[in-house]
Amino acid sequence: MKRIGLSLAAIAAALVALVLIVPSLAPESALREALTRQLVALTGRPVRIDGPVRLSWAPLPTLLVEKVTIPGPDGMPPLLVSDKLQGELNLTPLLIGRLEVSSLMLKRARIGLTTTKTHDHSWDFKTGVLADAANGHFEKAMPISALRLVDSTIQYADAGGQSTTVSIEDATLAWSGLTDAMSASGIINWRDRNAEVSVAIAEPASLISGGKSDMRARIKGEMLNLTTSGTVDGDGRLQGQVTANGASLRETLRWLGLPLPDGHSLAAFEVQSPVTVDPTGISLDDVQLTLDGNEAEGSLLIQLAGERPKVSGTLAADTIDLSAYSSEVQLSRGMPRQWRDDRINIKSLMVSDLDVRISAGETVIDKIKLGRTAATISSHDGVFEFALGEAAAYGGTLKGNVTLKSTGNAVEFTATGNFDSVEMGKSLPDFFGFHHLEGTGEGTIEINGTGASVAELSRSLEGRADIKVGNGALVGIDLADLMQKIEKRPLSARFESGYGGRTTFDTAQASFKITGGLAKTTDCRLDNGSLSVTLAGQSNIALRSLDMAGMANWSDGDGASPFRLPFRVSGGWDVPVVEPDTEALIRRSGAAAPLLRSFAKPGQDVTQDSVTSVPASSAQAQ
Known about the structure:
Elements: H1 2-25, H2 28-43, E1 48-49, E2 53-56, E3 62-70, E4 80-89, H3 91-95, E5 101-114, H4 129-134, E6 146-157, E7 163-174, E8 182-190, E9 193-201, H5 204-208, E10 212-221, E11 225-233, E12 238-246, H6 249-255, E13 269-278, E14 281-291, E15 294-303, E16 310-321, H7 323-329, E17 332-333, E18 338-339, E19 353-365, E20 368-380, E21 383-393, E22 396-407, E23 410-423, H8 424-432, E24 437-451, H9 454-458, E25 462-475, H10 479-488, H11 493-497, E26 502-515, E27 518-527, E28 531-540, E29 545-554, E30 563-572, E31 576-580, H12 582-588, H13 593-598, H14 616-621
Parallel strand pairs: 5-6, 16-19
Antiparallel strand pairs: 1-3, 2-3, 3-4, 4-5, 6-7, 7-8, 8-9, 9-10, 10-11, 11-12, 12-13, 13-14, 14-15, 15-16, 17-18, 19-20, 20-21, 21-22, 22-23, 23-24, 24-25, 25-26, 26-27, 27-28, 28-29, 29-30, 30-31
InterPro entries: AsmA, AsmA-related, MerR-type_HTH_dom
Pfam family, one: AsmA
Region (Disordered): 602-622
């Protein structure tokens, strides 16, 4: 025990002597030379120290240095500029009077990683241990085994002049020997968001010399949680697995630099896939994607080599629920509904080039339910296009194409579509909230327009639409019943009939020509044998209103007593008003006709209907 005590006392005495003697034996010039020697041995670059250098003993022997610079290659910015540097000294060499730094801590350091158009890099070394490793020589020991960065930045600038900066709150890189593994971990801040980052590379020396190495990496942050593992080579190509998730894909993409507008969709997401990463882009060969509660699988390719990123691929899902997106693509709002007057912004649709094909066994959008669906979303050269290849819907099929093109402050809009064998009584309420038509329908539509908002665009629409409906009904009015009552009591029947009932028909069809936001028709008719109806007039698309006049022709079972009733359709799309022509009712009343005749202009025939002449047989029946 006594010997142990004496040994400890001797060690303590030696340390005290070291503290007293070494400072006098190691002037500032020797300290500078020791640090410079090791940094040059590592990088092969001349090192400049512009500030003071001193030795501290608490808590461990440490070099304290200010203003350290490691230059870049000729013509490039410095590789490293650090306001403060602390170098922890090895104790064993120190006991024999030799100064060796085992690890460095840099405070307020700026690391500049630069690439030139001639493919030179600021981190290319011609001499030194790192250069030896790049050339496949691993015999030399690492001059410094660990590096810690505190309150520092790393800035990367590419050959095109684009740059990005990562702030390092506190991060440590450990690499004790060229043939050993390397690890790095710490807290970084990029674009005002913090993240914990860790990387482990099994064979860093092989990687530096152009070979391959296994690696693992993890990011855990406010915007993104990501883990990846696989094999990486010296050209920056990674093959492995990736898992990523976050609370909001919209916010994550914004963080990555894509200018997306505000919105409630593109929320929680998760991606799992084999991955290949190289300088040209990212390939997800067997991706499992979850977004806004939807699950899909397929393959995606994200190309980064061009001026803009490009995303292409295919995704398939059993069910896709797009209800989360409906509020953002609504064309009208309020009650009574009006077209949106806020500016159409398709820049968010053009943040990258797209060519993505999507298929689903079922697609849901609020009340709308479609069966098997195939669609393509694409954008390029300022043009966004949505193509619905085919969708099973309401007993029939839908096909269509919508194109948006940015032109100055406005948007050019083009849409084509057709539907076949669709149940109108179910589809119209779900798509448009219109409950007044039933039957099996088919039709085509072709429209185009230009405007800064949906409201402005609606005033410029041009095109045409053709619709046919079979075995259907007008819901909300029974024209046959109303006409029978009017025939008996022309003036009072209008008020007794009110609204309600159904007008069934065998066939109905309409053709509209759309000009300047007005959809005009001279060919709208329906027929059920005893009742036939023709309609002409227009619908103001901008005002969402109707102004049409019609003629209903009804006859009894033997067709012997035909009766004709003029009527008008007016009001808004949401609640259209269908009512008999008032003047025509008065003309049909024997008691009221003389009163109307007293207000007539000279030579005016008040016995004739306002829309079309009443047949002689009908006039005689009055």
